[in-house]
Amino acid sequence: MDDATQQPLRGITRLSLGALSGLLAGYAAIAVAELVAAAVRPESGPVVAVGGAAIDRTPPAVKDWAIRHFGTNDKLVLQLGILAVLTLLALALGMLATRWRLIGSLGVLAFGVVGALAATSRPDSTSPADALPSVIGTLVGAGLLYWLIGRLGHPARPTAGREPATDAGATPASLPGASGWDRRGFILAATAAAAASTGAGLAGRALSGSQEQNAVASRKDVVIPAPSSKAAPVPRGAALRIGGISPFMTPNSDFYRVDTALTVPKVDATTWKLRIHGKGVARELTLSFADLLKMPLVERNITLTCVSNEVGGPYVGNARWIGVRLADLLEQCGVTPPSKGGPADQLVARSVDGMTIGSPVEDVMDGRDALLALGMNGQPLPFEHGFPVRMVVPGLYGYVSACKWIQDIELTTFDAYDSYWVKRDWAQHAPIKTESRIDTPKPFARPKTGTVMVAGVAWAQHRGIDKVEVRVDDGPWEEARLAAEDTRDTWRQWSYPWQATKGGHTLTVRATDRTGETQTVKRTPTIPDGASGRHSVVVTVD
């Protein structure tokens, strides 16, 4: 018998090689799809498109759970989950194809339909061409699976009603319906398919990388002019020197990131444009990044808070922002706030990835330092935080104010349009609630008896913090020492020297803002307009 042609494959061996064929077909489909996506639009790739569609359709409670448990790694977990599911399905289709070759191959095409629908239904999709990566990728994958399964030959099939002949002269290859498998051909085909798929994937990455390099280069070339209105120096005593407390200014690398972008958009500042239009806009504006750099710039310290931040959670940070006053741009367009007769009460900001965020026009034009920010902590915005331009509005949760990678501003009304999160049961209006957090000691810490410094931060942006109090167990509320205030738009550090005694204790904190409102004891979830309640930690004193 020729070494290249073996007896028919049976049982587990045939299924295993079928599963391998399915895996190679899936790998080829994704690699080719990513190569095509690099030429069409990187965001149209099937993994990103399906992942984005999954995020859009995930119930808010599940999204909140993912943010709580995975933090900024929630997108990575989702992508790995998608790849794991695709791997299992590819293995299953490969095994199915060993019995029904055409059906298994057509199954691969079905996933192309899913990917194409996901890509073209995304908010940032602007062309039917977004379907091409998934369609072309799965056509290649289906063809490869059909071809590889053909290399396995046909298994022997018993004659209806009786067992196949087993006389001494019969060989496995002569059984009814049987044909030997081409071992050498299969190995060569599988190796070539793996190599070609890897090459396609690397080519796709290289093409996408060259596009990203333009964005990276544009950021490196940015020189932000000195602001016409500089932030006042941080007052002495605003930053306490206590171990374990959050730094007053949050470094860019530590600043929280919560958004729906599976891949961080890399926008070239030299080609970026912003359009301002809509209801009540007398003069539409289209601005380039260079146009914004020529305008009077404002520098301010502002604390941002994510609505997904649980009581005592980490999704709050303070940074020095520099940018253009949003109110100045709106006034330049002839926009007036509702309190002065303006017809629009909602500003809808649109991101390059299709995200829409609705902010009250009244709030962004009431005199607060609402900015189109270009810089963060003395640098151009990091890509993760919205380069080249993002919105920053003191006093509002991010989902109603902090549009990153912004490219469009439309004036409309809350009655006429629901933004992304409002469609998913979040509130239209969401001022940041008065909150406080214990940073040290940490939960379940074991401090020694004596003086233990309890410390943390409190925030009530655009109102300011007036008082922070600490309670030990069920004892009386004791006033903590407040650090110096920078501005009412920044958080405020506090400390309380606790005379710790042996045993288990519960430490609780509450803050009172400058309007006289004290942080409520009532616990509420993050949905629909931010969590409320008082943060506490349990410690054991040795």
Q: Could you give the count of β-strands?
A: 20
What overall form do the CA principal axes indicate?
globular
**Roughly how many Å apart are the termini?**
80 Å
Task: State the major sheet.
Answer: 5 strands, mixed
Number of helices: 10
User: Average pLDDT value?
Assistant: 90
Sequence stretches where pLDDT stays below 50 over 5 or more residues: 159-178
| Structural class based on helices, strands and sheet pairing | alpha+beta
Instruction: Give the % helix.
Output: 25-40%
Strand order of the largest sheet: 4-3-12-7-8
Please provide the ordered H/E string of secondary-structure elements.
EHHHHHHEHEEHEEHEEHEEEEEEEEEEEE
% residues in beta strands: 15-25%
Radius of gyration, CA atoms, in whole angstroms: 30 Å
